[in-house]
Each structure stands twice: as C-alpha cells, then as structure tokens.
Design brief:
globular; Ribosomal Protein S8, Chain: A, domain 1; alpha+beta; GMP Synthetase, Chain A, domain 3; 2 domains
C-alpha cells in the first residue's frame, strides 16, 4: 500500500481512546474483541493486545475507527504512540488487519439475545433519544448490538460536538440503564473529527 496512513487519536477519557485512520480498516460492520484469545487471527487486534504494560481490555473496530479500552494508568499521549505503530504496521501489511468473528456454537447466548436488545434499544432511540438530541440539530444512529454492547454513531449537531460525551454518558447511557437494563455498555463509533456543524465546538468553553 503506497498511500500514507494518517492516524488521529481522540482520547475519550483516561481508559478509552478512539483512533481514526485515514483508510478503511474493517468493512464488515463492527468487530469487538474483549481479550487476547478473541484477537487470534486478526493481526491488528493481536498487536494492540500485545502492547507491553497497556493492559488492553477491549477493542472495537468499525470502518476506519478503532476504539481501545485500557486498564493501564499511562496517559494516552504516551500509550497512543504504541497503538498508532501497531495500527500502521498491521494496516499496511499484505494480509487483512481484521478477520470476521467465528460463529457461536448453537445453544450459546445470553438470556436476552442481541436481536431482542436491538429492538428494545431502537425503540428507546426513536421515542426518547432522537427527540432529545433533535433540539440541538443532532441525531443518533443505532449501528449494532453485540454481546449486549450498543454500537452507535452520532450525526448532525452531535458529530464533533464538545458536549457529545456528556450526551452519551449522562443522557443516552442513563436512559438505557433505566429502560433496557440488560445493556452492558455503549460504544460511540462516530468520527467526530469530520463534524461539519457541531452544536458546541470541541475544546472550547
């Protein structure tokens, strides 16, 4: 691959950071890894889970966005360089950086299926979340539910908004905790760097 790979790190908090890559990484929807065992066969995930001292606990890949969750207290300014190197080396290799998840064996699954959760979450988004964010010219799209974790993408005034994480954590997460308690977490896969008309500019008071 001759095209130069550009990677932008967007720390969400001390544990989570979103890495936006200038080329597609995984076109198969959303791929989530929760440990080194699940990473086997996907060079990108293997490389990130193997970074010394980072203690990566979760990795989500969707399109050109990679979200890394770490248990280490190391600041992202330092840790991000190692993650960026792992992304660059695996994305430019001649083999796919990410492979499809293995199919679960029949009979496996949680008490509430992801399909059932998807329907419940979609109802909350339609009836409560989107009417709320529409007041600021925003919208929230439900992408997928995997292992009871909701994947969403923000658009309109929410994309690139400096208050997007507040909306996510205090608004959407709170609603789902109350209305769909089986949901175990939320992952925002939005590329906030490309927001054309954010309601609040990021990094401004």
């Amino acid at each position: 691959m001759t095209e130069e790979i550009r990677i932008t790190a967007e720390p969400i908090d001390t544990q989570r950071c979103k890495f936006v890559v200038s080329v597609p990484v995984w076109a198969g929807g959303v791929r989530r890894f929760t440990g080194a065992d699940e990473a086997k066969g996907s060079p990108l995930a293997e490389a990130i889970f193997a970074i010394p001292g980072l203690a990566v606990s979760e990795l989500i890949v969707s399109g050109n966005i990679i979200t890394v969750v770490k248990q280490s207290t190391a600041p992202w300014q330092a840790a991000g360089r190692a993650v960026g190197n792992a992304i660059r080396s695996t994305v430019t290799a001649d083999v796919p950086a990410v492979t499809a998840a293995p199919k679960p064996a029949s009979g496996e699954g949680s008490a509430v299926t992801d399909d059932a959760l998807y329907e419940q979450v979609a109802k909350v988004f339609d009836e409560q979340v989107n009417p709320m964010v529409a007041r600021h010219g925003g919208r929230v799209e439900l992408i997928d539910v995997q292992d009871a974790v909701v994947m969403l993408r923000m658009g309109g005034g929410c994309q690139g908004c400096g208050m997007a994480d507040v909306t996510l954590r205090q608004g959407i997460e709170g609603m789902l905790a109350q209305l769909v308690p089986a949901v175990r977490g939320i992952v925002d896969i939005t590329d906030h760097t490309s927001g054309a008309n954010p309601y609040f500019q990021a990094a401004k008071k």
